[in-house]
Please model this.
Amino acid sequence: MRNIQILGTGCPKCKQLTENAEAAAKELGIEYELEKVTDINEIISCGVMMTPALMIDGQVATAGKVASVEKIKQMLQSI
Model:
């Protein structure tokens, strides 16, 4: 099971990143657990300075932008 975390405060970009990450995992048929991290101190402790950010299995995959479904699928397959 993959652990996917969306780091951000719930802005429209955060919501879009969440939708894209869920779609990517579903398209790949990957079992996943999705967690939304909204606490700014926790976000900073992950080394993220710009949101939204995407973490896969504890690694920052992208920060400061909304990755496309296709890009997230590539990340899920390579991380």
